[in-house]
Amino acid sequence: MFHLGAMPPVLALILLLSFISGCSSTGAKTEPDTAKPSASAIVAPDAQQNQTPSPETAAQKTPQSDELDAKYDQILKKIMAKQKAEEEAKDAKPEAYRLRKGDSVEVSVLDELEMTRNVSVIPDGSITYLLVGEIPAEGKTVAELRMEIQNKLSGFFVNPRVSVILSKISKQEEEKRTISIVGAVQSPGEIQITDKDRVIDVIAKAGGLLYINDWMGGRTVANLKASYISRKGVKLDVDFDKLLRIGDMNFNVPVENGDFIYIADAESSSIFILGEVYNPQLIPYNRDISLVEALSRSGGFTHKAEKSRVIVLRDSGLGNEFVYVDVESLLYGDKEEQNMILKAGDIVYVPEQGLSEWSRYAEYLMVFGSLLLQGYEIRDQVRFPRLNRRDEYFH
């Protein structure tokens, strides 16, 4: 170890410059990258040979695998987008409540006790407060209402500090939605409905169809064939007979506010069985009934009945028409096509055997049938007056 101070000044200066020059040249050198390879980079020669993709491995990369990768990426992006949307929804602040009719707020002014009032939003959407009078409040937030009151009070106070507190939230009643149902139901009248109600729901709310017990047993008096639902004066394509008797749910349509349902009364539309039967009667028409069934319900033929020439009188719309039916052959299995389906208002007459003057009895029956049909129409108009509707098919 030696000291520069013991040397001559020139020699010391030379040695100092040499030392500085050596340090700078050493720092400028760039040493080769002798860093040791990482553990993952150290691979045995055998392993390196195994990592070389074989032709079979390269062949496995097909367009199908590329398509699967693309689908995977799409699914991953959707999941990430959904997570991001959920996070944003959590971070989002709920929308401020807006005042509605019937709400109440407490308004006060700092250091002005006499200005404290509890006011309500009246039906026209406004509130009334001291000094400022009426202020529109419906649809505004509490903060917006506070600022408006504070600005209006600035003409009466110096820098007023207003507080508005929501003290009561009114219950908003839902709009009442109703449907009218009349006729042969247990509780006819106005029925309140919901968005999910259908035809059967309305009939159930009306107590169901009207049933009676008489000498014919328990039965409904509803004429489902003539029942209908009307919307804005137009009848809908709903077959109540198929819906309620057969259970065809295709006709169980949703109902709307203001709809009208009429369940016809079978007592107002009947089939008349007259002549040589044991129990001449009126059969209420509430479903399809064949000629043989109607005669059976009337007790069948008497011993005087002319079974081969039963007369059915029907109003065709253009006038009364006769239909002659050979029920005797029908009962023996012939002419089954003549077992006609009767309609409301039909008159079935079974004549007596041995009558030769068919025209005289036919004329009598025609007159009787016309009077009977007229009486039936008058009674129908009295009990069920025709409604004034725009539907041209309404009857």
Short note summarizing the structure:
The protein has helices spanning 9-28, 45-51, 55-60, 63-91, 142-153, 199-205, 240-246, 291-297, 327-331, 358-383, and strands at residues 104-109, 112-120, 126-129, 133-136, 162-168, 178-183, 189-192, 211-214, 217-220, 222-231, 234-235, 260-265, 270-275, 281-284, 289-290, 310-315, 320-325, 341-342, 347-350. The chain has 395 residues and is of the alpha+beta class.
Structural commentary:
The chain is an alpha+beta fold. Among the domains are: 65 residues, wza like domain (wza like fold), CATH 3.30.1950.10; 89 residues, Outer membrane lipoprotein wza fold like, CATH 3.10.560; 115 residues, Outer membrane lipoprotein wza domain like (Outer membrane lipoprotein wza fold like), CATH 3.10.560. Helices cover 32% and strands 24% of the residues. The chain has ten helices and 19 strands. A hairpin with a 2-residue loop joins strand 10 and strand 11.
Please estimate the helix content.
25-40%
Q: What is the terminal separation in angstroms?
A: 133 Å
Strand order of the largest sheet: 7-6-12-10-11
Number of strands: 19
Query: What is the CATH topology descriptor of the domain at 269-383?
Result: Outer membrane lipoprotein wza fold like
Uncertain runs are 24-51, 55-59, 381-395
- What structural class do the secondary elements suggest? alpha+beta
Outline type: elongated
CATH homologous superfamily title of the domain at 269-383: Outer membrane lipoprotein wza domain like
Please give the CATH architecture of the domain at 269-383.
Answer: Roll
Give the H and E element order: HHHHEEEEHEEEHEEEEHEEEEHEEHEEH
Q: Count the helices. How many?
A: 10
**Mean pLDDT across all residues, rounded?**
76
Largest sheet: 5 strands, mixed
